Amino acid sequence: AYRMKQNDQNKNDKMEIIQKVRSMWAVVMEMLTSLKNEKEVVDSVLDDCVGQCILDGTDVVFSVPQLLAHRVQRDIHQICTGNIYEAEKLNFLTVIQLLNEALRTLRDE
Fold first, then answer.
1. Facing residues of 106 across strands?
2. Is 58 contained in some domain?
3. Cα–Cα distance between 16 and 78 in angstroms, integer?
4. Mean pLDDT score across all residues of the chain
5. Using CA atoms, how far apart are residues 100 and 78, in angstroms rounded to an integer?
6. Are 3 and 40 part of one and the same domain?
7. Name one GO cellular component term (predicted).
């Protein structure tokens, strides 16, 4: 009788473990399906943007107005930390510094 009870307990334990594994597997499959859908959405957005969303500044032509160029040349060490183009790419930090100086110039006038 003791062996039968032990056997039944082992079967119940196995069934519980199997049920837990099935439940975990269902959660994993649900997550994978969800991630697959999200990946498809991201892929479609990226496919539409190929070649359109390059932010390296290689094709940007930047010209500085004469008034701003004169003011910047006068105080170059206080205003800008670098060249507008470095290694044939736009230096965004310098562009932002120039834009800030342009705004200061407008404010002062």
1. none
2. no
3. 72
4. 79
5. 12
6. yes
7. mitotic spindle microtubule
Task: At 82, list the tokens.
Answer: 């670098």
The tally of domains found in the chain comes to 2
Which of 36, 18, 38, 40 shows the shortest CA–CA distance to 28?
Answer: 36
β-strands 89-90, 85-86 pairing: antiparallel
Residue 80: the pLDDT is 67
Please report where in the chains the tokens 């205003």 appear, as a residue.
79
Helices (H), the chain: 2-49, 66-74, 76-79, 92-108
For CA atoms 20, 26, 30, 32, give the dihedral sign: positive
Kindly state whether residue 61 falls inside one of the protein's structural domains: no
Distance between CA atoms of residues 25 and 49, nearest Å: 36
Nearest to 26 by CA among 18, 37, 38, 14: 18
Q: Which two structure tokens, joined as six digits, stand for 99?
A: 């834009």
Same domain, 5 and 39: yes
User: Which pLDDT band holds residue 60 (cuts at 50, 70, 90)?
Assistant: low
Amino acid identity of residue 6, one-letter, is Q
